[in-house]
Amino acid sequence: MSDEEWERFLRESVAGAAGAPVEPSARARAVERRLREHPGPSAGWRTYSPARPRRRTGWYVAGLVAAVALLAVGLFPQQVMGWFGGSKDGQDGAPLAAESASPREAPGAGPGLRPTLAEPFRGSPAARWADGAAGITVPPAKATGWMDAAQVERALRHSRDFLVAAGLDSHVLRGERPTKAIALLNPHQEDVQEYLRTALSSTAPTAEKDPLLLFSRFRPQQARLVGDVVKTRGRLTYREGRQGAVEVTADVTFVYPVTPAGDGGPEAEVVRTIVRRQVVMSWDDPAKVITEPGTMSLVSYALDMTNGGCSVPTGYFVPPFGTAKEQPADQGHQVDPYDRSKPIDANNGTTAKGTDCATATRS
After folding, report:
1. Are the C-beta atoms of residues 214 and 305 closer than 8 Å to each other?
2. Secondary structure element (H or E) that encloses residue 149, with its range
3. What does the DSSP assignment read for 238-283?
4. Is residue 18 part of a domain?
5. How large is the average pLDDT for residues 70-99?
6. Which of 107, 126, 263, 359 could form a disulfide with 231 if both were Cys (CB 3.0 to 4.6 A apart)?
7. What pTM was estimated for this model as a whole?
8. Is residue 301's pLDDT more than 70?
9. Which domain holds residue 278?
10. Average pLDDT of every residue of the chain
11. Within 13 A of 61's CA, how many CA atoms are on the CB side?
12. Are 338 and 362 contacting, i.e. CB atoms less than 8 angstroms apart?
């Protein structure tokens, strides 16, 4: 090798020749290895990586709680409403849905407020009931016995008409003759016709011939209704009866707010007379039973009342005005007049029989 070539070799060894391979440093090798093992951008020294959002399990829990609450309202509406108490004006919440089946228990306790002329249903479960005929539930009609569906629908409508004429007609409530209700009764049913003649004409009715067994009446000289609203709750049911008849059963509670007759002023006392009626009506096949078109026979009728009188029958409800602060001597037999979960007990002391009278737990 000449001297010139040797000197060039030494210079290139120090400066490095263009395109010559370079051995990577230890740091470079470490970075390359990390990139192979963890692809993607690396985090800087002073950068912030937000935490991963958590799964929204809270929404699922809230939905489960809401579903349980709705189920509780559906199964136990009265108790759930009782947890929250009554409204500011004592009207105890939103209106109840129509009664489509026998309730399993009594309504929950209300705020315990007394009725007034301005709010005659204040503090009562009836504050949430429907007004008048709207509170009597009529089921869908289907062919039964000797009737087709249209005839059953008509029979159900007339059955409710009878209850309205007997328990809601303003003239009847003032003690007048229940003409519309009587027109729906089979004139050939002798025992019922005899009952009507005796009960509505006698000045001294008996327990068996008391017009109150079928009709709601107040003596105008003693009591008058507060306002025009009577609260009701109940329903009709039907089935095939004897000889193919359509047998309709009515189970309805009426709440009548009344005050003493005359002008007692804005502070006049208000008493609620509560009446539960159960009437069984038979719409007979005219080919088998002597009847008239548009009329029905009475199979049975029962009455349960509170604040309507406990003395000898007079033919009228007798609200106990002036006794609100009195305590009955015997409170051993108590009844809840709003409890529709139990059948009517004709011997429970709330009917106008003798001087025995049970104590109502509320009115």
Report:
1. no
2. helix 149-167
3. EEE-GGG-EEEEEEEEEEEEEEESS---TT---EEEEEEEEEEEEE
4. no
5. 58
6. 126
7. 0.73
8. yes
9. 112-360
10. 82
11. 4
12. yes
Q: Residue 10: is its pLDDT beyond 80? A: no
Closest by Cα among 151, 172, 175, 153 to 163: 172
Domain count, the chain: 1
Instruction: Give the DSSP letter string of 69-129.
Output: HHHHHHH-HHHHHHHT---TTS--SSPPPP--S--SSPPPP---PPP-SS-TTTTSGGGGS
CA 46 vs. chain centroid, Å, equals: 65
Cβ count near 195 (within 10 Å): 20
Tokens describing residue 88:
């500011």
CA 208 distance to own-chain centroid: 34
Q: Distance between CA 342 and CA 106 in Å, rounded?
A: 9
Instruction: Compute the distance between CA of residue 329 and CA of residue 202 in angstroms, rounded to an integer.
Output: 32
Q: Is residue 342 part of a domain?
A: yes
Is the confidence at residue 50, as pLDDT, over 50? no
Q: Which two tokens stand for residue 175?
A: 């003690």
Does 161 score more than 50 pLDDT? yes
Domain annotation covers residue 253: yes
β-bridge partners, 298: 281
pLDDT digits (tens, 9 = 90+) for 175-233: 999 999 999 999 999 999 999 999 999 888 998 999 999 999 999 999 999 999 999 99
Q: Is residue 286 part of a domain?
A: yes
Nearest Cα to Cα of residue 212 among 249, 175, 252, 248: 175
| Token pair 């005050």 in the structure block, residue | 259
Q: What's the CA gap between 22 and 41, in Å, rounded?
A: 26
Extract the tokens encoding 361: 């737990």
The pLDDT confidence band at residue 355, using thresholds 50, 70 and 90, is: very low
